[in-house]
């Protein structure tokens, strides 16, 4: 039993959250997160307004995750809260999320990760925004990201130019949004063929289906922890095929609806990714990993240049990111105006 798991039972005795009307269900996929799951569950229990239901889906964990989920579920049920546990044998967070989605009965759903935490006002703030704006389909808010070294940075959500900002800034990442349940179902749910950046791809489908999106503003109420064993991890070049598969899928969505302007943006996003590969090559100490990062950067760069009708713009995006490492979205906003 992990130390985090061992601490969960005594902390559960002092639950002070309020059960009141809310249209939000929380769905959490879990895979070998006994070392972080206690933190996530305690943060849900500490909400000033409790969610209507919490759905935990174990995805073939081999550690103590299932036992942690059971203990927490039993306690919460004793306190009158609605918690459901499931096991999903099909591998992948998307399959686990879709399993949980099938059990959602509320109008809105919040997909959360088992290594992140929400501050006490999180559910309350989104519930109030939904109450005041019942016709909106997507509600979002900026979050804090804590890196492995303990440093934090803000990851922004914005409802302005949502497609552009999502493509370049990932505004509709899992932890930043609450979505109308029927919208997720109508757009096909989570794509179980994508091993990573699946919320990136889902966000594109959501934005192609609705423009009723709202930034609820206010202080950040989620801290996401960037861990080496998370889905995103800490290296891009070592799993290049994962990110690029999602970008390919997004580009296909745009081509299918005749939006060449948006498809062009996916090439610009590939150039940012190529720059990230190359930056990893600059800093990697292990020789083979360094060579692979440099190779993947050169390959992806060449692929974009060979296919694009705007080679100088693509080169500008790449060079900007190589030089400054950030704010490349601002340059892209200028040189790639949307029609």
UniProtKB/TrEMBL annotation:
The keyword Transmembrane helix does not apply. It comes from the Bacteria. InterPro entries: Glyco_trans_2-like (IPR001173), Glycosyltransf_2 (IPR050834), Nucleotide-diphossugar_trans (IPR029044). Keywords: Transferase. Residues 25-158 form the Glycosyltransferase 2-like domain. One of its GO terms (molecular function) is transferase activity. Gene3D superfamilies: Spore Coat Polysaccharide Biosynthesis Protein SpsA, Chain A (3.90.550.10). This is Glycosyltransferase family 2 protein.
